[in-house]
Specification:
This protein is an alpha/beta fold and 263 residues long. The chain contains nine helices and nine strands. The relative contact order is 0.14.
Length: 263
């Protein structure tokens, strides 16, 4: 935790470590660092990613698949550092061109910019950088995961592989979030629907911006309290659709993910 936050806490009435006001202040500070970092994560999305990383009720590492120039990396690293919430591992080969990656306009790698941005934000020492493809990292991965942020290969094959490879390491209560699920890449949306929304291993789920997210709840994900109830299709068959309710994550987190209105 930063010195400034230690000073504030020392002179204030004792509160729970993860008091939502305190977390909201950390997210605000995180956004100031994220906003000066190159990338394509909107303010609304960045605030959500930081809130999810801060509030996931689980122990383990925070894994980011796909870093580009570090916009989301900076946010995740900052809030987890301030709250003491596990190591951040960022995996990305930083190669260009790639079919679903931004055009680097002639450059062959984003790595130097990535490292420079982490240094500028003061979070470089917080991150385990893995300059490899996710399938290469998966061969040696053995650690529990509390927060899984997927923003790498947005093709169906690539996104599905990332879920398949790292889902076995999710701990109960972990949060999975995928970027560009809505409005950008059909493959990512299909994977989110088929592998997450349609899976009884996940409970609460929802969207913010282009992000799709869900909480890993293998013990009770299929519980009716996470369902909208039976719905008949045109043939008369009934099915169940997953709701976007939050159970273990405080509802106030939504306020922390909203960008302040501009005057």
């Amino acid at each position: 935790m930063s010195r400034s936050h230690r000073r504030v806490e020392a002179g204030s009435p004792r509160k729970p470590r993860r008091d939502l006001d305190h977390i909201s202040a950390i997210i605000d500070q995180g956004w100031r660092r994220v906003s000066s970092t190159t990338g394509y994560l909107s303010e609304r999305e960045a605030r959500f990613v930081m809130a999810a990383a801060a509030l996931a009720p689980a122990q383990g590492k925070n894994l980011e698949i796909g870093s580009f120039k570090g916009r989301s990396t900076v946010g995740i690293a900052y809030v987890t550092r301030e709250l003491g919430l596990g190591t951040v591992v960022a995996v990305d080969p930083h190669t260009s061109p790639a079919s679903t990656d931004p055009d680097l306009k002639g450059k062959t790698t984003s790595y130097e910019d990535f490292v420079a941005n982490l240094e500028a934000a003061g979070v470089l020492e917080r991150i385990e950088i893995k300059r490899v493809y996710s399938h290469e990292l998966a061969r040696e991965w053995k650690d529990s995961i509390r927060f899984l942020w997927i923003d790498g290969d947005h093709t169906y094959k690539g996104a599905k592989a990332d879920i398949d490879m790292f889902k076995p390491y999710l701990v109960d209560g972990a949060i999975v979030a995928m970027h560009d699920v809505l409005g950008t890449f059909e493959g990512a949306l299909r994977v989110f629907v088929e592998e997450i929304l349609d899976s009884d291993d996940f409970g609460p789920a929802g969207f913010t911006g282009s992000i799709g997210w869900a909480q890993y709840r293998p013990r009770d994900g299929k519980s009716t309290r996470f369902r909208a109830g039976p719905a008949a299709d045109s043939s008369g068959a009934t099915g169940r659709s997953r709701t976007a309710r939050l159970e273990q994550i405080p509802l106030q987190v939504l306020a922390a993910t909203r960008a302040p209105r501009r005057r």
